[in-house]
Structures are given as C-alpha cells and as structure tokens.
Write a structure and sequence with these properties.
The protein has six domains: 247 residues, Sandwich (Immunoglobulin-like); 145 residues, Orthogonal Bundle (Neutral Protease, domain 2), CATH 1.10.390; 124 residues, Sandwich (Immunoglobulin-like); 81 residues, no CATH class; 79 residues, no CATH class; 91 residues. The protein contains 28 helices and 29 strands. The strands form eight sheets. It has an eight-stranded mixed beta sheet. The protein has a five-stranded mixed beta sheet with strand order 16-17-18-20-19, covered by helices on one side. A hairpin with a 2-residue loop joins β25 and β26. The longest helix is centred in the last third of the chain and has 25 residues. The protein is globular, with a radius of gyration of 29 Å. It starts with a helix and ends in a 5-residue tail after the last helix. One of its GO terms (molecular function) is metalloaminopeptidase activity. Its cofactor is Zn(2+).
C-alpha cells in the first residue's frame, strides 16, 4: 500500500526498537566479527526494515541472500482452556555471506521469552512484528537459533485459530497462514522462497487428534494426563502451507490407491458430513492428477479437515487441507452443490503439485498457482467424475466473476508487482482466480492439449521442492508446444482489461460469402489480443434451433477475415464464442439478437442457451437494453427452461433485476409492478417445478432473496411454521434460517421472537451467524446504528465471522434510505478502519457500502477517495468499484427512462 512504502522510504536503517531483552549495538551498522568470511566472499547488500507490520519484497530478497538453508523444529504446548499457547522454535540456519545488518525473524503479536544462538542465550530486540538479531551474534555457515515464545490464539481465522463449540464446549484449533501469517504461529522466516522441513512435537489433551503434514511416529502418555505427539521431519516446502490442526475431531478413513486418506470434522458437525462423497471425489482427483502430471503424489498421506470460522473456501496446507464448514449442508445437496464440493477438493489437490511441490518465489506469482488450480480442478472433473456439465459451471462461476472484475476501475494485470505482503492479500480476487483460470483454459486450445500437458509436467519435474517464476512456466509450455510465448505472455498476463468481439457477415443464396471478426478494447486498456475461438452457426430446423456448423478460428488484431466460413449455411444465430473456449465479451449482431429473443427456448444446446441468456443480461448492465424489457423477456421465456444451470443463472439475474428496481428512481407504481411480477413468477416456479428437484430448491433460494409483499411473506411464515407445505420441498435447518432472515428483513409478525426460539433448538455457530444477520437486517435506524457501533467500536467482542455476518446484511437494496441516513458516519469511519491495518477487517467493513443509483452517492465515493488516497487496498478498491458500479446503475436508469425500442 502507498502509505507503507512512503513511510518505509523515509526511515533510517538504525530505527530504535522497543527491546524485550538487553540492548544491543545499533543493529543495522556493518560489524566486524571473528567469524567473518575471507575478503573475497561477497557481502550482502543493505535493505532497511522499518518497525511496521508485514514484509517487503525488497527485504525478502535480501534475506534470501543472507540465508542459504533453513529447517525448523517446533515444540508446542496446547490446552483447551488457555487463550494463548507456548512454543519453542529451533531454526537450523546457514548464513550464506557476511552480514552487513541484523538478521530478522518474523513474529507478529506474540511475546518472546528468550533467544539463543548455538546454545548460548543472546540479547535481542523485538518490536511486536519481528525479532532482530545483531550480526555479531551469528557466524558464517551453520547456526542454531532457538526462540522460546508465547502467542495468543487467533479469532479471525488466521494464524493458529481457536474455536470453542457452543454446543458441547469442545475446543478445536487449526492454522491458516497465507500469505504472511505463519509468523503468528511461530517465529519464522516467513517468505515463500525460504523453503524448509519441519519437525514438530505437540503436547495436547489426551482426547485430541493432532494433525500436520506427516503422520505421527510416536505418542507418549504424560504424567499430567495429556499426550505428547511426535512427528517426523517433512519434506521441504514454504511456511505459508505448514499445517497444525488439533482437537477432538471425528475421523473417517479410506485410501486412494496406496495413499492413506482421512477426513475430519468437529463432533457436532459430523452427523451432517457425508464422507463417501468426500472420499469419492478425492479418489477421482488423485487418479486424474497423478496421471496428468506424470508425478506420483509427493507427500505420503492426505488429510482433509472441515473447520469452523474459516474466512475462505479452502486452503492447500501440505497433506492436511482445510475446508470451510459451508461445504457441509444440513439437508440434501443439489447436484450443483455436490459439484462445487468436488471442484474445491480437486482445486486444493491440484496445489499439492502446483503451489506446494513447486512454489512461486514471491507473491507476484500468487495468481499462477490459483489460476492453475482453478482451471485444473474443472479439467479433472470434466475428465474423471460423474458430472457432465463442468464447463457450464466454470462459465457460470469463474468466468462471469472475472468479466465483472475486469471491467471495474480496480482491474489489474494477472501478473502484478507486489511490493509487500499487505498488497499480496489484496490480489486474492476474481482476476487472480477467474480470469487467470480462464486464460489458462484457452491455452490447450491455443497450444494443443498434449503440448500443454507436457509443458506442465516438465515444469513440475524440473522445479520440484523448489521455487519458480512465470517465465519458467511459460518457457516449458512454449518448448513443449514449439511456440514462442513471449508476445502472448505480455498481452495476456501483463496487461489488464477484457476485449469485445463482434462479427459481420454477408450471405448469398443462404450461404456465407464473407465473415469478419472485429476486436475492440476499452480505451483505458487498449491491448488487442490473439486467441482461438469457435464460431457456432445455428439455424431453425423442425422448430429446433440447431448448430449446423462449428468453425474454429484464431483471431488477432482489429479485423480477422474468416475464410473457413465461406460457403457455410447463413446463420440465423451466430454464437461468437461457442462452447466458451475464449476469454472475451461478445457483441451479437442484430439478426442474432432478434432470433434469440424469439427462439431462445428452442435452442438445442443448454450451454448455448446459458451463454446467450448471459449475453442478453450483459446488454442490460451495459445500459444497451432497458431493464423493463429484459424483465418482460425473462418472465415470458424462463418458465420453459429445464436445464438446471440455466435456471440457476436466470434466478440470479432475477435477483439482480429486483435489486436494481429498488435502486432506480422511478415512479412507485412501476417499481411495484415489476417487483410483484418477478416475485409471483418465482413463487409459481417453486410450486410447479418437479417435486424434490434441484430446480425447486433453486427457486426457493431466489424467493428468499426477493420476496417482499405481505402475501409472499405470509407464505414464508407458514412454510416456517409448517402450516404450508410444498410438495417435495423439505425445509431443512439452513432453509429455516433463510426464512427467518427474510421475515426479519421485512419485520413480519413475530420476526424477533423467531430468532430467539430457533436458537433454542439450533445453537450452532452457524445458527448464531444467521441470528446476527437476521438482527442486523431489520429495517430500522436504531438497529443500523447499533450494529454499526458493534462493527466499529466493539469488534473485539465479536469473531470476524460474526462481523462479516452483520456487515453483509446491514443494507440490502430496498433499505437504501437507511443507508443514506447513516452514510456520513459510514464514510467518516473509513480512515479509522483503514488505519487498523487489518486486511480481513477492512474487507468486512467494505461489505457495508452498496451500489447506490444516485449522483449524490457517486459524489460521496468520489470525495472520500480524493480525501483518503492511501487507504488499505482491501477497502479502497471496493470504494472505487462501488463508485463505478453506481455510475453504471445511473446509466441503466437513463436507458430505462427512454421510450422502449420495441
């Protein structure tokens, strides 16, 4: 972030530190030592490290020169009652060159009791962020650095997180370190290119299971009733993927070939876990990846733990992967939910090779491991699973989020400089995952499937247990496919923005005589790119819109004539990115749009229908088609749709349309009419969809997001009480909470009592988060003030997951008036929130800011950004996006107010 860099640049190397031990000489000055190497040995250059959180790329590069090798021994003392833990770390470190300044060991937020080097206790300095050891305390070559320390458990899902189950009182611990939180667990050189092995021993309660990368080789019974777990040394990997999990987990076991598998969950969640699904998806993924990579799984065993309070979906800790408890349903999963679980299992497993075995040198390479795993997970499922609609789901999830992010002011190249660890975290976004994965998806089309696979395999083989950079990966792909990748890399990976393609064509005697693809780029990001697409030519045959020809073509530049199309049937619909090979927006020709709006239900391919529904809604959000006209089109055509992925897309689009209708400044009767039409349609679909079908459950989800009339809310209340039943739709526990949140949102009936009564029967932590959402969403100014005060001034009384539950619910679209009453206070607190330097808290606070279709709100965003131009990226980027999204909303409103083109 900018203020960090400015501050760092002005500090002198000899900044004074608050000392936890005896004072040492100024530690950044060159010091002559008896152990100095001969004069011919190259000295390490000097890079200042100021007394601030985080790690800079420049200092990490220096420390990589200082240290030739490192391995850790970690001893921990854990119990179920304390708010903190104690440990002893021994770093077996080789100093590579004479030190010109202190060596620092990252350790944020703990207490240091002592530091020893080679068996002798030494003076040290500790400023709350890192330990500093003066150069005269270290010798050239091998050193053994021991640190005795304590550290509080985390409550924000990072570091070593502690969770106490409200149902049975059991305590569970798990680690989450990416990108720079391993040093909240133990003093470490916490950067990805200082790989190490880890030998761990843990004293813990007797009924706990303790899990790390290796299986224990000894468990001792202690005199105090606890047990002492001993684990053999791991292979070398980076600090951010080191796992340590502990607690009275329920354990299920299986195998994938010769690889031992375990699945774990806390006791009160275990009855809802379906281990056979987890093991089946895991076994299928292992079967695919070992064959595809051509490298056997390198880490021996494979554990998967389902953990509470997790702030992301899952994390690829080596051989002990953690998953969010949201992947466990308290009712029957839909096929889409099952596929989502299979996808995340495959994603994390892909990392065992790409990310864990071979790791980026610094966080500018974060995108590559995440993009690769995003693409490879879908490839694994498409190749070796029960699911036959994997690429449709990839299009729905990964690609759509990428397109949206790539058109916002905060878009960025896939590969970006990362000056420090704070900004590394800010790049966990839809560009990192969705666009990167989509760009990689096109490479097998561009290079050939086998060329791509061979390049991946040779890359992983060469850099196993080491670190690599983007150029290494691209060189291996280019060599395998015999193609120069330099220009492709520059255009796709180092430049931001999404292109749009359109086509013109001429026909004679119903045959194509000329077809040309045109490519454009936004003026802010003017790069034109090259990629391979497939043109789909569709014609109506026996009342079915059928693809009669498919034309693969590689386009580049502003215009690409498609000679291969000459003589093919004249299109009634020309789908420019058929089967979604490419990462590109499409602008359909008028003839195709006319046919789509008349015949969308007749299109044979569900994937094509999915893409064309999205294209039409894009024309609404691009302010080219009035929302009213789209709503009419959707309600006239959606009822005939039977494909679940298209139904899911339409449901989400109707939710979005309802939200925009609330935001627009239009006459009340028009708003009421369109909102009631959407609500009535969705309620009818719940009742008419096949009993127990995924479609029925999808429409129920949509209903809970947009129901608002008294009739609809009374139906919701009766569903909750059991007075009303819908054939085939069992209302499970999570669905009950969705209904309770809905009733609180509109203050219907005994809405407040419903929350308290439900907590009596469901006292899980998930239920508590639902209850917070239900309370925060109530449409009164008093409630909003109370919860904003909790978020701003009482956040130490809440876990991060609870702060997020409140923030995400506080200002739904129909409560914009309440947001406006509070907006001055919300914006005034922005610098205070940013100054906490807490990325996760800043992300949570950013959830409070809505898309507001008003010039006044746009001006508020603009003014705040001008006054505070050095905000933490996690907050500042969201404010920039909301400003543009609000401007887009105004543009949509202006189109709405024009007479309809139809």
């Amino acid at each position: 972030m900018k203020n960090f860099r400015k501050f760092a640049a002005t500090l002198l190397c000899g900044t004074l530190l608050a000392s936890c031990g005896p004072k040492t000489p100024p530690s950044d000055k060159p010091v002559e030592t008896e152990t100095a190497a001969p004069a011919k040995t190259e000295a390490v250059p000097r890079v200042a490290r100021p007394d601030v959180p985080g790690l800079t790329a420049a200092y990490a590069a220096l420390r990589k020169l200082q240290i030739a090798d490192v391995d850790y021994k970690i001893s921990l003392d854990l119990d179920s009652e304390s708010e903190s833990f104690s440990g002893r770390l021994i770093a077996e470190t080789e100093i590579a060159r004479p030190l010109q300044q202190a060596l620092t060991i990252d350790f944020t937020g703990g207490e240091v009791q002592s530091v020893s080097v080679n068996g002798q206790e030494i003076p040290f300095e500790y400023n709350g962020y890192f330990i500093r050891i003066a150069p005269e305390q270290l010798q050239l070559g091998p050193n053994s650095i021991a640190v005795d320390y304590t550290h509080p458990y985390s409550t924000d899902g990072s570091g070593l997180h502690r969770f106490k189950d409200p149902q049975d009182g059991n305590v569970y611990l798990y680690t989450h370190f990416e990108p720079y939180k391993a040093n909240r667990f133990a003093p470490m050189f916490d950067q990805p290119d200082l790989k190490a092995s880890y030998t761990i021993d843990v004293k813990a309660p007797a009924d706990w299971q303790v899990v790390t990368t290796t299986r224990e080789d000894n468990i001792e019974d202690l005199a105090d009733g606890r047990k002492h777990w001993h684990f053999p040394a791991t292979k070398k990997f980076s600090t951010y993927i080191l796992p340590l999990h502990a607690g009275p987990f329920v354990v299920w076991e299986s195998k994938a070939g010769d690889i031992p598998l375990r699945l774990m969950a806390r006791k009160t969640l275990a009855p809802n876990v379906k281990p056979q699904d987890w093991f089946t998806f895991t076994q299928q993924s292992f079967d695919f990846f070992q064959k595809y990579y051509g490298i056997e799984y390198p880490f021996g065993k494979y554990d998967q733990l389902i953990v509470p309070d997790f702030t992301i979906g899952a994390m690829e800790n080596v051989a002990a992967v953690t998953f969010n408890e949201a992947y466990v349903s308290r009712g029957e999963k839909t096929q889409a939910q099952r596929q989502k679980l299979a996808n995340v299992i495959a994603h994390e497993m892909a990392h065992m090779w790409f990310g864990d075995l071979v790791t980026m040198k610094w966080w500018n390479g974060l995108w590559l491991k995440e993009s690769f795993a995003t693409y490879m997970a879908s490839l694994a499922l498409a190749t070796n699973s029960e699911f036959d609609d994997v690429w449709e789901n990839f299009y729905l999830r990964s690609k759509q989020s990428a397109y949206q992010a790539d058109q916002l002011p905060t878009t960025h190249p896939i590969e970006v400089p990362v000056p420090n660890t704070a900004e590394a975290f800010s790049n966990f976004d839809s560009i990192t995952y969705g666009k990167g994965g989509s760009v990689l998806e096109q490479l097998p089309h561009y290079l050939g499937k086998e060329g791509f696979r061979q390049g991946v395999s040779s890359y992983l083989t060469e850099f196993s247990y080491g670190n690599a950079e983007l150029k290494d990966f691209m060189e291996h792909l280019g060599k395998a496919a015999n193609k120069d990748m330099e220009q492709w890399t520059q255009n796709w990976l180092y430049k931001a923005g999404v292109n749009t393609i359109s086509a013109t064509f001429m026909c004679t005697d119903d045959k194509i005589t000329q077809l040309t693809i045109m490519q454009t780029a936004p003026k802010e990001h003017p790069t034109l790119r090259e990629q391979k697409i497939q043109l789909g030519i569709y014609r109506l045959q026996d009342n079915i819109m059928t693809r009669v020809a498919a034309v693969p073509v590689t386009y580049s530049g502003a215009r690409t004539p498609v000679k291969e199309a000459k003589g093919l049937p004249c299109p009634q619909i020309l789908n420019l990115n058929d089967e979604d090979w490419a990462y590109v927006k499409t602008n359909l020709d008028e003839k195709s749009v006319g046919q789509i709006t008349r015949h969308i239900t007749a299109i044979e391919s569900s994937f094509t229908r999915l893409m064309l529904w999205q294209s039409l809604f894009d024309s609404v959000t691009d302010a080219k088609w009035p929302l009213d006209d789209w709503i009419t089109f959707a309600l006239n055509n959606a009822g005939a749709e039977s494909n679940i992925n298209v139904i899911r897309l339409i449901g989400s689009q109707l939710e979005a349309a309802s939200a925009y209708a609330h935001r627009f400044d239009v006459p009340g009767e028009l708003r009421t009419e369109r909102l009631e039409a959407i609500e009535n349609f969705v309620w009818a679909k719940i009742n008419s969809s096949p009993a127990g079908s995924d479609a029925q459950k999808t429409w129920f989800e949509t209903f809970t997001q947009l129901a608002h009339t008294d009739e609809a809310l009374n139906n919701a209340a009766q569903l909750l009480s059991g007075e009303l039943e819908i054939n085939g739709l069992p209302v499970d526990q999570d669905m009950r909470w969705q209904l309770i949140v809905l009733l609180n949102r509109h203050q219907l009936g005994d809405y407040a009592e419903l929350v308290e009564a439900e907590l009596q029967t469901d006292n899980t932590d998930r239920a508590r988060n639902y209850a917070i959402s239900a309370r925060a969403i109530r449409p009164t100014l008093e409630v909003k003030k109370e919860w904003l005060d909790n978020i701003l001034n009482k956040r130490d009384q809440y876990k991060l997951s609870q702060i997020r539950a409140a923030a995400s619910a506080l200002f739904p679209p129909e409560q914009l008036k309440l947001y406006r009453d509070m907006s001055t206070q919300l914006f005034a607190a922005v610098p205070k929130v940013s100054d906490t330097q807490d990325t996760l808290y800043n992300k949570a606070y950013a959830m409070l800011f809505p898309i507001a279709c008003s010039k006044k709100e746009v001006a508020q965003y603009d003014q705040t950004l001008k006054q505070h131009n050095e905000l933490m990226p996690a907050l500042g980027r969201v404010l920039k996006d909301r400003r543009q999204q609000s401007e887009m909303c105004l543009a949509m409103e202006r189109v709405l107010k024009k007479p309809s083109a139809n």
